[in-house]
Design goal:
Blueprint: H1 2-23, H2 28-31, E1 32-48, E2 55-61, E3 68-74, H3 78-83, E4 96-104, E5 110-118, E6 124-126
Parallel strand pairs: 3-5
Antiparallel strand pairs: 1-2, 1-4, 2-3, 4-5, 5-6
Length: about 130
């Protein structure tokens, strides 16, 4: 009887823990639209090296109006980015970049990056996007 109770308690604890971590993260399709690809070119204003997703913020100038808009670009986790050659210092404010990815569904000026090209060097890095796992 004691072993049955322990097994039941362990199963309940595992279920609660698993449900908490899954609920805390969003799916790609819930936030971004694969049918709306985008390419943005602009200057980096900030890189947030945080879990569960890193973000790069980019000032993008509209070629027709000249208006500048700051975009939040979601990438993968710092661990995933590191495996692709990133460091927390690879992008600095003022660096020119071109980013390819998918537009956000509900928030203006939000996108998910598939790749980032650093204009000065031409280096192209993957963005550890969750798009592939959708």
């Amino acid at each position: 009887m004691r072993d049955t109770f322990r097994l039941l308690a362990l199963a309940v604890a595992a279920t609660v823990c698993a449900g908490t971590s899954v609920g805390a993260h969003h799916s790609f399709a819930a936030e971004f639209d694969i049918t709306k690809p985008m390419t943005l070119t602009g200057k980096v204003t900030k890189l947030e090296w945080t879990n569960p997703h890193a973000y790069v913020y980019v000032d993008v100038q509209d070629p027709q109006t000249g208006a500048v808009t700051n975009w939040a670009i979601e990438m993968g986790s710092p661990n995933g980015l590191t495996r692709l050659g990133w460091t927390r210092n690879v992008l600095k404010p003022g660096d020119a970049v071109t980013i390819e990815g998918s537009l956000g569904r509900y928030k203006p000026n939000l996108a998910n990056a598939r790749s980032v090209v650093m204009t000065a060097t031409g280096q192209k890095l993957g963005a550890a996007s969750s798009e592939a796992s959708r």
